[in-house]
């Protein structure tokens, strides 16, 4: 029999951002931590990540969630976050999507509503609550890892705009947050290419000046995500934003870890209060995430906050992919657009 591989995937969209969810198809050495599982997957199956998330099966901005056995008794399931270029430490829209799918497909031990799922991620354990009404999974709210404002007022020069001040906040990943005047450039799909280029330029400048290491999780050092934000025209919405990452990839949704980082930044600057819910609008403008800081905490002795993010995810479809390691194009490829 010829050696071959098939991978089953579930596809969702969370306010426009697609998640490719792969459930339980890969075996890992016993007794390994989640980070060790991620390293094992990198060494053994990284070609699968590239083949599924990049063309010809995926696209440049596709994000993935690999469901794995939990390594901690404090969690129900583990998730390794993937994209076409590599691996992430936490993903909010992916948490909403994965929690929704696990509840809708009856893959969790709890059948009550809200369904509570403890998810182990490389950034720490997050806790989802999924609300079910009859046969309908209506929404998911998750409590994220502690968030904090790490750096303030870093000068960044953007073509056509000049020098602006950026902050760095942690919300499961490190984010560079930059206010973007709407009169300069509106955050909208038709301006995606321009926004992506600005994100790459801003990230290059920040990474030349500042190096980050999470004070409790030293494996988290990457400063890869750039959030541009401006006032929203939607009534009752606090801001509109877009998150760019890697070499011009773009989140279509308001972003879950991005919302968490924005909450930490806004609270740290005195613009919102603990317990104040806000609505965040993403690139598409089609819907919102609700974010709220529920309490204060500390990270390595420094003040931090605990955010929650609420959103909805919808089923897009299913795929069974055939992967042939002898098919060079089938292993995945990327065409640069920025």
From TrEMBL:
Could you list the residue ranges that cross the membrane? none
GO terms (molecular function) for this protein are: 4-hydroxyproline epimerase activity; trans-L-3-hydroxyproline dehydratase activity
* Pfam families for this protein: Pro_racemase
Which protein family is it in? Belongs to the proline racemase family.
- The identity of this protein, by name, is Proline racemase
């Amino acid at each position: 029999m010829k050696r071959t591989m098939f991978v089953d995937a579930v596809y969702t969209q969370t306010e426009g951002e697609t998640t490719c969810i792969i459930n339980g198809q890969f075996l890992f050495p016993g007794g390994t931590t989640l980070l060790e599982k991620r390293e094992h997957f990198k060494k053994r199956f990284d070609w699968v990540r590239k083949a599924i998330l990049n063309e010809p099966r995926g696209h440049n901005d596709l994000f993935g969630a690999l469901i794995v056995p939990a390594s901690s008794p404090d969690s129900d399931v583990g998730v390794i976050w993937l994209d076409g270029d590599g691996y992430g430490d936490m993903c909010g829209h992916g948490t909403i999507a994965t929690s929704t799918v696990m509840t809708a497909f009856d893959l969790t031990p709890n059948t009550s509503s809200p369904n509570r799922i403890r998810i182990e991620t490389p950034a720490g354990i997050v806790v989802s609550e999924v609300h079910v009404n009859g046969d309908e999974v209506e929404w998911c709210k998750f409590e994220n890892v502690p968030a904090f404002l790490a750096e303030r007022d870093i000068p960044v020069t953007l073509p056509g705009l000049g020098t602006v001040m950026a902050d760095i906040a942690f919300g499961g990943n490190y984010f560079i947050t930059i206010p973007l005047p709407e009169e300069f450039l509106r955050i909208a799909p038709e301006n995606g290419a321009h926004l992506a280029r600005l994100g790459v330029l801003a990230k290059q400048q920040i990474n030349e000046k500042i190096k980050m290491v999470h004070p409790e999780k030293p494996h988290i050092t990457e400063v890869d995500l750039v959030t541009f934000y401006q006032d929203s025209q939607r009534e009752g919405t606090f801001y509109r934003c877009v998150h760019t990452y890697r070499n011009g990839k773009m989140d279509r949704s308001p972003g879950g870890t991005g919302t968490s980082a924005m909450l930490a930044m806004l609270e740290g600057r005195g613009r919102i209060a603990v317990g104040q819910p806000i609505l965040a609008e993403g690139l598409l403008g089609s819907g919102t995430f609700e974010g709220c800081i529920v309490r204060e905490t500390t990270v390595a002795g420094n003040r931090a906050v605990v955010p929650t993010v609420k959103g909805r995810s919808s089923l897009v479809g299913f795929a069974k992919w055939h992967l042939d390691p002898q098919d060079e194009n089938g292993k995945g490829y990327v065409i640069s657009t920025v």
